[in-house]
């Protein structure tokens, strides 16, 4: 990334520096928004009440980061064992979104897709049954931009603030409060969610005032991420078929023009034959489905995303849906008659 | 790249350190070969006579790097204006491969494809007409591994040494003698070409004793590079169609999981609407053609490489073959009805 104009909100930083734990915020202006980066520490200006709906790997990480930062956190999940673990970690377990949303200042929605988001917000025992007006909702699921916009409008019509806030970075970073947020929303919404965003993320891209803009950028990121995972799988499979040592190939490509963030990350899973899910095949069935569907509606062609989606769908249908997304390589290996480490021929 | 076992050939380094310009070589063992990196400076143990056949952007860079390092360099090209410029730069211009190869210790072949390599080596006035036995040939074109193997066998049958030495890194690095070489060949061939490799490259991956292994790894690199360029074009086009500011998107993706070496590099060309050829569309028509053809012969499936190749072929047929490879975006934009910077709708 080229160096952009850097400005420090020194007054804000100074107040925090003097009053709490020494937190400095850097804001890098991108023209239409800004990138906020927490430099160190963690602080809460006013202890706030939060709710996290959906305690999957990313939601769990956010909830624990909020607890660590001193927030009161009510957490909601359909799995009772997760709620038990959450109570043991210091959170307040809730069995419905409505009970989690009671009294909350900020509500983070971490379920998987737009259908689930609608259910937990607007369905029976949904958050809107109890949420007070002016509550701020962070929509953290990866959704079609059109779905995000529709949901945000419905929330705003009910008097709520909304930040479109899809996240990136994986469960390890979620747990350490260091994810990236591709965010958009009104300045008021950001003001209200500022301390929460500080607690859960290392970087917040502010992509505009309109919910939907964050989801658009996340969608493009997922197009690239999904294609790169599939390309990594294709490259490794062809290499295995050609008799190339995969570890050597991995080392060479990682420092060559063929490299990608996903090649470096998922390529290692294929080399070691480890398909423990960090992110799952089914996530990319969903996310590349969003890409091709939204592109189709807009009249844009996405032949690579379509080819990658085909592979993830085949992998899911073959029973690999809950495995690591790198398991898309198993489909290519089976079709190519190639042997990959740790994969039965 | 994970840190590998590092061993320094201290005796070699010391000799050079003491006798020439202070050159240190680090060799990182990858198990089946090694990665040699020049740390600083440039030296020639014995002034050697070299020939560079094909003074295109990469060959020109290599030839000038050799001249700078003190080699005698005979250069051959079909374009008389290039030969004139080469003479002005201190090289010896030759109109045929045969005249360039006279008296050479090491011959670098930098033409575009395997057909041209065969012509300049074995055709009329080809290098084999004059090359002395035991001359070392560096085959630097990106060729199908099967073609490389066949050409190397023919050279070795004529008593020559061969290094399969496709290069990566672009013309800027070629000019500064800092390309990467994905190399394979016998230890004797490497010994004979060592000073030449030092002069033209920053990094040499030694991928085995057998010519063909270097071309295999280069082919996998090109699969990824070509797919990543096409994915960059697809992502930028969809973003443009969705009304996302491309510069902001570029800045966000460069530090997110959707990034790739090619996205960072070629994405900038699309954002600025600059299609001045650094590498050309036609190069990827050739290289992805090699990938799909070799994969087809081996029975491997490569749906992403095939989809990317379709786009590069369409771009070439539409008249963009000699433009920067990022011009593949023009095809996607035309099909999608999207407006890209600097591209007429």
From TrEMBL, chains A, B:
Molecular function in Gene Ontology: NAD binding; NADP binding; oxidoreductase activity, acting on the CH-OH group of donors, NAD or NADP as acceptor
Catalyzed reactions: L-threonate + NAD(+) = 2-dehydro-L-erythronate + NADH + H(+)
One Pfam family, short name: NAD_binding_11
Keyword Disulfide bond carried by entry: no
Database matches in InterPro entries: 3-OH-isobutyrate_DH-rel_CS, 6-PGluconate_DH-like_C_sf, 6PGD_dom2, 6PGDH_NADP-bd, HIBADH-like_NADP-bd, HIBADH-related, LtnD, NAD(P)-bd_dom_sf
Source superkingdom: Bacteria
Keyword Transferase on entry: no
Catalytic activity, EC: 1.1.1.411
GO biological process terms, semicolon-separated: organic acid catabolic process
Every 6-phosphogluconate dehydrogenase NADP-binding domain range: 50-208
Domain 3-hydroxyisobutyrate dehydrogenase-like NAD-binding: from-to ranges: 212-331
PROSITE patterns given in the database record: 3_HYDROXYISOBUT_DH (PS00895)
Gene3D superfamilies: N-(1-d-carboxylethyl)-l-norvaline Dehydrogenase, domain 2 (1.10.1040.10), NAD(P)-binding Rossmann-like Domain (3.40.50.720)
Keywords in alphabetical order: Carbohydrate metabolism, NAD, NADP, Oxidoreductase
Catalytic center residues: 218
PANTHER family linked: 3-HYDROXYISOBUTYRATE DEHYDROGENASE-LIKE 1, MITOCHONDRIAL-RELATED, L-THREONATE DEHYDROGENASE
NCBIfam families per record: ThreonDh
Record's function text: Catalyzes oxidation of L-threonate to 2-oxo-tetronate. Can use either NAD(+) or NADP(+) as cosubstrate, with a preference for NAD(+).
Family membership noted in the UniProt record: Belongs to the HIBADH-related family. L-threonate dehydrogenase subfamily.
Name of this chain's protein: L-threonate dehydrogenase
Native source organism of the sequence: Rhizobium hainanense
């Amino acid at each position: 990334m080229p160096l952009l104009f850097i400005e420090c909100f020194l007054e804000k930083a100074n107040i925090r520096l003097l009053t709490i734990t020494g937190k400095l915020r850097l804001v890098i202006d991108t023209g239409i928004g800004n990138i906020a980066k927490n430099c160190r520490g963690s602080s809460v200006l006013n202890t706030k009440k939060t709710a996290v709906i959906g305690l999957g790997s990313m939601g769990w990480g956010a909830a624990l980061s909020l607890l660590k930062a001193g927030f009161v956190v009510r957490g909601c999940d359909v799995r009772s064992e997760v709620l038990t673990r959450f109570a043991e970690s210091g959170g307040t377990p809730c069995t419905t979104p409505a009970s989690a949303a009671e009294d909350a200042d900020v509500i983070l929605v971490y379920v998987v897709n737009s259908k689930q988001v609608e259910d937990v917000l607007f369905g029976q025992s949904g958050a809107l049954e109890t949420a007070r007006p002016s509550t701020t909702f962070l929509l953290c699921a990866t959704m079609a931009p059109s779905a995000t916009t529709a949901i945000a409008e419905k929330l705003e019509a009910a008097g709520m603030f909304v930040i479109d806030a899809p996240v990136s970075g994986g469960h390890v970073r979620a747990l350490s409060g260091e994810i990236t947020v591709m965010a958009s929303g009104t300045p008021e919404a950001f003001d209200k969610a500022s301390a929460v965003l500080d607690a859960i993320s290392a970087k917040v891209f502010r992509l505009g005032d309109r919910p939907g803009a964050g989801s658009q950028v996340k969608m493009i990121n997922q197009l690239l991420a999904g294609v790169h995972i599939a390309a990594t799988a294709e490259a490794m499979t062809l290499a295995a078929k050609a008799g190339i040592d995969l570890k050597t190939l991995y080392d060479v490509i990682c420092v060559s023009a063929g490299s990608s963030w996903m090649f470096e990350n998922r390529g290692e899973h294929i080399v070691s034959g480890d398909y423990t899910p960090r992110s799952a095949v089914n996530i990319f069935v969903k996310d590349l489905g969003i890409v091709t569907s939204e592109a189709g509606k807009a009249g844009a062609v996405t032949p690579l995303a379509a080819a990658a989606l085909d592979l993830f769908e085949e992998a899911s249908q073959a029973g690999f849906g809950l495995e690591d997304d790198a398991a898309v390589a198993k489909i290519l290996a089976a079709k190519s008659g190639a042997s990959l480490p740790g994969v039965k021929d």
